[in-house]
Each structure stands twice: as C-alpha cells, then as structure tokens.
Design brief:
- The chain is an alpha+beta fold.
- The protein has three domains: 249 residues, Deoxyribonuclease I, Chain A (4-Layer Sandwich), CATH 3.60.10; 161 residues, no CATH class; 75 residues, no CATH class.
- Helices cover 36% and strands 17% of the residues.
- The chain is built from 14 helices and 19 strands.
- A seven-stranded mixed sheet has the order 3-4-7-2-1-17-16. A six-stranded mixed sheet has the order 8-9-10-11-15-12.
- Helix 6 packs antiparallel against helix 7.
- It is elongated and about 95 Å long.
- The protein starts with 9 loop residues before the first strand and ends in a 7-residue tail after the last strand.
- The N terminus and C terminus are likely disordered.
Amino acid sequence: MNLLKCKNFIIISTFNVRTLNTINQIPELIANSINWKIDVVCIQEHRKFHEANELEYKDAGKGWTLITSSATKNDINATIGGVGLLLSPRAIKSLNKIEKINSRIIIANFNGNPETTIISCYSPTNVADEDLVTQFYIELSSLVRDVPKHNLLLIGGDFNAQIGMENNKTFSFHDQTNRNGELFREFAVENRLLVLNTKFQKRMGKLWTFQYANGRKAQLDYLLINHKWKNSCLNCEAYNSFASVISDHRIVSSRIRLSLRANNKKLDNPPPYYWKSLIHDGNNLVRFTIELRNRFDALHDESVIDNPDTTYENFVKAHWEAASNCILLKPKKRKRVPWETQAIQDQRERIKRSATRKNGNPTPQNISKFNREKYKLTRLYQIELETYLQTKIDSIKQYSVNKQSSMVWDTINEISGRKRISQAKLKATSQNDRLNQWKNHFKNLLGNIPNITNVETIELFPAQTESNIKIGPFNDEELNKALTKMKNGKSPGLDGIPPEVWKTKHFNNVLLKWCNEVYEQRPIHYWTRGCILPFPKKKEILERPKTTEE
C-alpha cells in the first residue's frame, strides 16, 4: 500500500521553534502544518528535557506525533537546544526506524521506493568554539556516508551558517560567507549535497530565515538533498505562515515528489463492532440471534464432513455475516481538542498579519503590537484549557455520584496521559530483522526440549483417598457456571467471537457439544492457537511500531 504516489507531493520543512514549552506552541505548530499540508517538520531548539535522555514520543493531537531527543543543561542549569521531528499521520505510518545520534542530530528512515532518510540537526553558533563546530560536522559527515547511496536523503536544520553568493551560481541572502558558512559549504561539497535554499531564484524576502532583535535579517536555516535526487525537489523557500508559533526564525519548506510506502499489515483487523449492544438492546439481541442461527443452520446443512472443526468454522463465518447486518460499529471517541475554537483561529490570523507588518517595517509600534497579539493568543489558550479541565472535573464528579468508577479513571487517565499505549518498538534495521529478534528472544526464553537420559524410574503410590473431581462429559450446569464468570468487554480470541455472544446463552447447545468433542480429543483448530503480542521493556523502546501484529 503506497502512502504517496509519484504524482503526489510531500512537503518537508525545517523550523527552529526556540521552545515548545509554552501552552500554545505545539497546537499552533500542528494547526499551521495541517493548513499548509506539511508532512514532516525537522525541529530545532525545542528545549524539552527528558530525564531518561532518550527519544520521547508524544501524541501531539489530531494523529500527529512529536518525536524529540532531550535538550541539554548549561552551566546555569538552563535547558538549551534539542532536536526532533513532527510527523503527520500518514508520515508516521511510513516510519521504519528513528535513532538519536547525539543531542544535536537525529536520523529517521521511511519505507518507500526509494527509501527516504531524513536528518534533523542543530549546529553550534558562529561564535562557539571552532573545535565544537568541527566535531559537529565530523559526526554529521560520518552519518551521511553511512546512508545507502540509493536512498533519498534530506537534511533539515539550523546550521547557524551564512553563505555568500559564488559567481551568481547560488541564490543566497548574504554577500559574504562566515566561519560556519565555510564549514557548511565544505560539508555539502564533500558529501555531494545540494543546498535547496540556494537552488531556486527567489526575491530577498523569501530567502531570510532569522530576524535579530534589532531588525537585521539572516539566512541560517537550510534544507539539503543528495545530488542523485536533486530533480525530485520542485520548490524551496521560507514562509511567514508560522508566525503564531512565536519564533524569531521562519519555517523553510520544500516540495518533494517521491513515493513513501506504508508497511503491509499481516492481519486484517476485524471491524470494531459495539458488542455491548447485545446487553443493552433486547430487540437487537433477538435480531442478531435469529440471524446467526439461520445462517449457521444453512451452512451446517451444506457441510460434507460432520466434525467439530468444520462446524465451528461455519459458526465463525455465520457470526461475522450476522454481525455485519445486525451490530453497529463502536462510536468513535473524538477527543475534544482544547485549542480549536473560533476565537483562537481568528487570533492566529491577526498574529500572521501583525508579523507580516513587523517583518516588513520593524518599527517600535509594529513590534509592540505584535507582542500584544502574542500575549492575547497565549491568554486565549489558558482560558480554553481552564474551561476544558473544569468540564472534565464536573464529569468526574457526576461519574462519582453515579458510582461509575471506571468512567472516573478513564477521564483521569485522559487528562493526565496515564496508561497511554506505548508508541515505540524494538530497535532493528528492518521489519524482518525485528521479527527475527523476537523469534530468537522467545526461543531462548522457552528453550529446547530437554534431552533426559538414564533417569531412574520412580514408583508412584496411589492416593489414599478418592479425589472429589468430576470426570466425564460436561453438562449444562457446568457450562452456565463458566459463562457466568466470563466478563464483558474482554478481547476475543482469534475467532473474533466476544464473550457477549456466548453469554446470551442462545447457543449453549452447540457450545456444549463442541466442549465435549474437544474433551474427547477432537480438537478445534481455533481453540489450539494463540497470539503473542510482544511489548519491549523501556530500555529497549527506541522506535515506533506500525502495527500491533509485530
């Protein structure tokens, strides 16, 4: 299944956000990315510190995922730096692996033909120690050389480098090259990389990416691509459209034509039917029971071989056909996104207009007005968050009065983010490599069949008293006792039949027959198979999974 076809475009960007620790920046980053149809954003200077110093996966809302490596602490214990990737829902489906190289570089591989490699990086400033900058480019060059030559390689980052024009062959914002610019240019030439910012002829207003406090502008952020795929890039320029994120940098976006391919699912997940309707809706229960019974009887009459395996397969088939006609799908739980209000959307547009005036004419009046608009946006987010939390608190109180403890904890977990499904997986070079690692793990865990020889025979003495264990076929009383102990809402087996179907007790006659036939050594293959869902421990969680079947 192709996520993108060659006829379609994908937009990849790089953005120094300055920080993502305020209440409004991540929502604004996602809202603008959706508006401009961006799929991948290379993030610099997010300033989010992780105690574990590992990659952190954050559900950023609307299906977007923010993956960040930890920022660092300076001498005064202030958080600085940090790089990451913001991935759209369709980009995350194509993600194969992601790895942190150091605090300034991360690399991600995406499935496709060709495979796509994206590097997000953040270079030391032009006034930093030269050895530090040189070491950064040594590590980055070593990483680039390890990327397969056939891969489409894209590098996005804040390189703190100014490139001057070279005999009018490049379209740069600056006339002269600074120290970081020389190292940056040498890195690009050595690794046969094309600087996309300087490939297309643009007016000066489309080239600068950073504005100093005094109003002076510079071009510091760049996107690079390997020469082999330079014709895949159709455009690259800087935009003012992310002004509501509140950064002194501008986003640099490039339109790429390539093919990203999502991982093939090995199993088709069954539709999410709302099985609890069999408990709450008596009419639906009668309709489903009649439909299932009629379909099963029709299939059973056509069976040539009367054995439990065949009849059970017919029952499973009839079950799914009846469910598709009688059972409704589960209602989708749409999380209310606290930041999507009309007031916030209007304020976002006002900030963009104010930022355009400030960038074009940085007078004290325009700067002051832009700062006021920023404060208004932050305040709107705070008000909306307070309203959202108060609504949840009121619902918790109501659930508590109604003695719905499960709903209380579901709401608490939704607010706090507790018990969130892990979004990471075992590190590996490919899907097959990952499966082989799990195979070897379980092989070592379970071990081989022991080879026992020369064992003395131990005489077993009969029990002194007779045990009170019933033997022989099962009866209706035992079956009803077992069904009563079953809990609703539990996951079904590989046959997909949930407990709610059996607990109707309308199919006790066939179920009791199958249980007794299995007891008599006539197996049903659905009852002899299991499914292992491996969950790696925290220290092994390095990459995001594509499907739960892994």
